[in-house]
Design a protein that fits this description.
The chain has 587 residues and is an alpha+beta fold. Among the domains are: 132 residues, TolB, C-terminal domain (Neuraminidase, 6 Propeller), CATH 2.120.10; 254 residues, 3-Layer(aba) Sandwich (Rossmann fold). 17% of the residues lie in helices and 35% in strands. The chain is built from 10 helices and 36 strands. The strands form 8 sheets. Strands 29-30-32-31-33-34-35-36 form an 8-stranded mixed β-sheet, with helices on both faces. A 4-stranded antiparallel β-sheet has the order 1-2-3-4, with no helix packed on it. Strands 5-6-7-8 form a 4-stranded antiparallel β-sheet, with no helix packed on it. It starts with 5 loop residues before the first strand and ends with a helix.
């Protein structure tokens, strides 16, 4: 808990300063530092509530570099870069997010949920009453004003096809939106203008992988820029429009590459056993700032020279006591599952484990399920390994990063193929002579919690693989969860499992609460009482079923926590309880 996450940085227009979010002291505030050397940063905000990093977003600079806009408490705010009191720009009772300045700095565009859906609005740095730019019965996201300020590119999410998104343009002074892309079951995302405003680049999965495409807004013509059976995760145009820096996923590593628009040559800019994100160019195009994290180093901001690839860390978040610890980089592995599936995974092996002294093991599935476990900072996994546990983190069917076929293999089969992948993970670990196959557990958060419950409830073997499970704010009945949760979670379920009225049997088959009677080993359950994504009633329903079946469990509810625990006192209790539980049943 002593590691304070640095994240979501934004390079100033003149390239001299970096704004970023720093998770520390119970807040997720904005800080500012010079971009040319290591300096202690200046704090810009003092009361921005703590946010889980996966649910937050970057601040955005004004074109003159004088102010920054950001979202907090469901409103849009403006703070002077020189320091001073932050000003609230919106205050009309509707959730607002995703602010970005117009190129001339006279407007701030943002997404407002004035009804059910998020639509585009505009206000001014003075906080004038907002003007609606779109009124869709669907969501808009990722607003990107054109360099000439005349139009705004954005992503449109039609309700009639939840597995589809489109790149659109709307006039900045209001008018009809123009759809530039769109195809059934295709995601087109992340539109970014070239500096001259004549081209848009975007990410699409239309080839079966998330790849880069070039779009001519005038003609609608698209050209694929990458082709390597690997998922592009983010990118940024160079100032001269001749190159694109992008992050691409190779077996859990997010490498930084450089693409030459003329000729299509791709050259590695920085490859490391970790993950890059948010690449941003200096005004002269000679260097980039980028965020980087790895299993051995927490997230930080780096400066990368474009010509040489030389990289310098601008922040340091690793406490001195951890600098001498033997943090491990996991091994990338694949193991077989049902139906001929090959499941990619990352495996941590304790240094003390050997055939003479086999270690206990924990299967640690990620949440999502449309996510992945990658070579990123995870001190919980390192802590477990340091205690002597092997940790296997599977990218089960349904995970991203390994192509659309792997991701869509879970559609209509929640609780079926993913459970098989968990049981196969147990078999894989049992086959290693340095793992004690009789001392294995499974734990996860959110969807990973759901998988932990499934693995305990649906293991048909006479000697079950897992001797305990840990469920952290997860589902137990996906039908009632669909009814109880927020719209984002509900649509995510429908995207993969269809509406319950069309697939009632699938929802029933995917709900482990009906199999609680088959659980043979203890469960540890945690939930936050303000969780909107997976309602705490999911854990209440599970606990009632466990009581009815006379099962062994512990259950803790944390006050004031949502879908992700953030309060220090709750985290201290959580980790202490987790340690006691795992060590009691597995060590």
């Amino acid at each position: 808990m002593g590691v304070k996450r640095v994240r979501h940085h934004a390079l100033s227009p003149d390239g001299k300063r970096i704004a970023f979010i720093w998770d520390r002291e119970g807040t997720s505030d904005l800080w500012l530092m010079p971009a040319d050397a290591r300096h202690w940063p200046v704090r810009l905000t003092f009361d921005r509530p703590a946010r889980s990093y996966w649910a937050d977003a970057q601040p955005h600079w004004s074109p003159d570099g004088e102010t920054l806009t950001y979202a907090a408490r469901r409103e849009i705010w403006l703070v002077p870069a020189a320091g001073g009191r932050a000003k609230k720009l919106t205050d009309f009772g509707h959730e607002a997010s995703g602010p970005i300045f117009s190129p001339d700095g006279t407007r701030v565009y943002f997404i407002s949920k004035r009804g059910i859906y998020g639509n585009q609005c505009a206000t001014t740095p003075a906080g004038d009453w907002p003007v609606a730019l779109t009124r869709f019965e669907a969501d808009a996201s990722d607003l990107r004003p054109a360099p000439d300020g005349q139009s705004i590119a954005f992503v449109y999410h039609p309700q009639e096809d939840l597995n589809r998104s489109e790149i659109c343009i709307v006039p900045a002074k209001s008018g009809e939106a123009r759809h530039l892309t769109g195809a059934p079951q295709v995601w087109d995302l992340h539109p970014r203008w070239a500096r001259d405003g004549t081209r848009l680049a975007f990410i699409s999965n239309r080839s079966g992988w998330r790849e880069l495409y070039l779009l001519d807004p005038a003609s609608g013509e698209t050209t694929r820029l990458t082709a390597g059976q690997a998922d592009v995760q983010g990118f940024e145009w160079s100032p001269d429009g001749k190159h694109i820096a992008y992050v691409v996923n190779h077996d859990g590593a997010g490498d930084l590459n450089l693409l030459a628009l003329e000729g299509g040559e791709v050259s590695p800019l920085r490859a490391a056993a970790g993950w890059h994100s948010f690449p941003q160019w200096s005004p002269d195009g000679k260097w980039l700032t980028v965020e980087f994290e790895s299993p051995q180093s927490p997230p930080g901001i780096w400066r990368v020279d474009v010509a040489s690839g030389a990289a310098e860390s601008l922040t340091q978040s690793l406490p001195p006591t951890l600098q001498t610890a033997s943090l491990q980089t996991p091994q990338f592995v694949r193991y077989p599952s049902t139906g001929g599936a090959s499941i990619p995974a990352l495996l941590f092996r304790p240094a003390s484990a050997s055939p003479a002294h086999p270690c206990p093991a924990i299967v640690y599935p990620h949440g999502g399920p449309t996510s992945e476990y990658a070579l990123q900072w995870d001190l919980l996994a390192q802590w477990l390994v340091a205690k002597g546990y092997a940790v296997l983190s599977p990218n089960y069917r349904g995970s991203t990063g390994y192509g659309i076929a792997h991701q869509h293999a879970l559609h209509d089969r929640w609780g079926i193929v993913d459970t098989e992948d968990m049981l196969a993970a147990g078999d894989y670990l049992r086959g290693m002579d340095w793992v004690n196959g009789e001392r294995m557990g499974i734990m996860g958060y959110s969807y990973g919690s759901y998988l932990a419950l499934l693995a305990l409830a649906r293991d048909p073997a006479p000697s079950t693989r897992f001797k305990c499970g840990v469920c952290v704010y997860g589902d137990c009945d996906i039908l009632t969860s669909w009814a109880q949760g927020d719209r984002i979670g509900r649509e995510d379920l429908e995207r993969q499992m269809a509406h319950p009225s069309k697939n009632r049997a699938g929802y029933r088959a995917g709900s482990p609460v009906y199999d609680v009677a088959k659980i043979r080993y203890p469960l540890l359950i945690f939930h936050g009482d303000e969780d909107e994504r997976v309602h705490p009633l999911q854990s209440e329903q599970l606990v009632e079923a466990l009581k009815h079946g006379d099962k062994t469990f512990e259950y803790y509810v944390y006050e004031g926590e949502g879908h992700g625990f953030l309060q220090e006192r709750n985290l201290l209790h959580f980790y202490a309880t987790l340690q006691r539980f795992l060590d009691w049943y597995l060590m």
